[in-house]
Amino acid sequence: MAVFTQVSEDQARALLERLNLGQLTGLRGIQGGIENTNYFLDTTQGHWVLTLFERLTAEQLPFYLELMRHLAAKGIPVPNPQADRHTGAILHSVCGKPAAVVQKLHGASQLLPDAAHCAAVGDMLARMHLAGQDFGLHQPNLRGLPWWNATVPQVLPFMATEAAHLLQAELAHQNTIASSTAYAALPRGPVHADLFRDNVMFEGTALTGFFDFYFAGVDTWLFDLCVALNDWCIHHTDGSHHADLAQAMLHAYQAVRPLTDAEQQLLPDLLRAGALRFWISRLWDYHLPREAALLTPHDPRHFERVLRARITQPLRLK
Ligand SMILES: Nc1ncnc2c1ncn2[C@@H]1O[C@H](COP(=O)(O)OP(=O)(O)O)[C@@H](O)[C@H]1O
Ligand SMILES: N[C@@H](CCOP(=O)(O)O)C(=O)O
């Protein structure tokens, strides 16, 4: 479950009054997610999601919330943070925690996607990258290379020898890639950085929104695409590449924004980077869990398998 902090109906009513969102008709804790406390808020005016941020600080949050507002204003289907009617602020405080209220997206996650779903994600991801180009705030991807370098030494003591060697070798490889000329030439901007199947809503094959922007940051657009390819377009049994799904996502992405030469060159390496990033975070959550977490951590071995598959069968564009 992901209700770390209990919100009472009176607290929800007080917040709704400040946001001018109507009278409370329902307040339900959301079971999914691992990072934050989430509630569905139903009112006489609509349906909303209340998030209390459990790890992110009030200094980090404006980047995420303003990015969502920026993208929504440009027609990208992302939840739009609701403002205080007196101050205009979109970052609120509930139970002493930083909080936001966003629109509830229609639909449901598609956990068994076909090529049409992957194409819809590729298309919207490219549109989102272009729409974010003129976003004014800057915050790096806080789960980028510096975090990998800092975190790998913390998880190594818990690992078996062979896996530890792979982790260290891949980290060294990614440090080399990050200092290459091709890497410096990669286009970059605000990216979602966690666009897994559980962070996208669909009604049938129609994509109704991207959400959970709380790992977003400025990074290469290619990294964002690779994170999505590594979740949407693989065989989840062994982590291997799913050619039809990958082709559908890449084709749709490139129909909006063709990959540059440097991006085509580094696609196999950034697929490895995407796998490494989530292998490290899952190892970290698994071996060094948060005190309050009542959660089953995601399986780190899944991304070890994805990384091995990306190394032994590199995906190259035809
Ligand atoms: N804007 C939204 N519209 C509809 N459902 C949402 C929205 N935001 C969150 N949810 C629901 O809440 C669940 C948990 O949200 P998520 O952002 O993934 O939490 P966490 O940040 O803790 O991982 C999602 O799987 C989804 O069902
Ligand atoms: N997508 C990550 C975990 C991040 O959790 P989320 O619920 O906030 O998407 C993973 O699968 O390791």
UniProtKB/TrEMBL annotation:
The UniProt keywords, alphabetically, are: Amino-acid biosynthesis, ATP-binding, Kinase, Nucleotide-binding, Threonine biosynthesis, Transferase
What are the GO MF terms of this UniProt record?
A: ATP binding; homoserine kinase activity
User: Which reaction equation describes what this protein catalyses?
Assistant: L-homoserine + ATP = O-phospho-L-homoserine + ADP + H(+)
* One biological process term in Gene Ontology: threonine biosynthetic process
Where on the tree of life does the source sit, at the highest rank?
A: Bacteria
Q: Does the keyword Amino-acid biosynthesis apply?
A: yes
Pathway info = Amino-acid biosynthesis; L-threonine biosynthesis; L-threonine from L-aspartate: step 4/5
Q: What is its EC number?
A: 2.7.1.39
- Cite the Aminoglycoside phosphotransferase domain residue spans from the record: 27-254
Q: InterPro entries from the xrefs?
A: Aminoglycoside_PTrfase, Homoserine_kinase_II, Kinase-like_dom_sf, Pseudomonas-type_ThrB
Family classification: Belongs to the pseudomonas-type ThrB family.
What's the name of the protein?
A: Homoserine kinase
Source species: Comamonas denitrificans
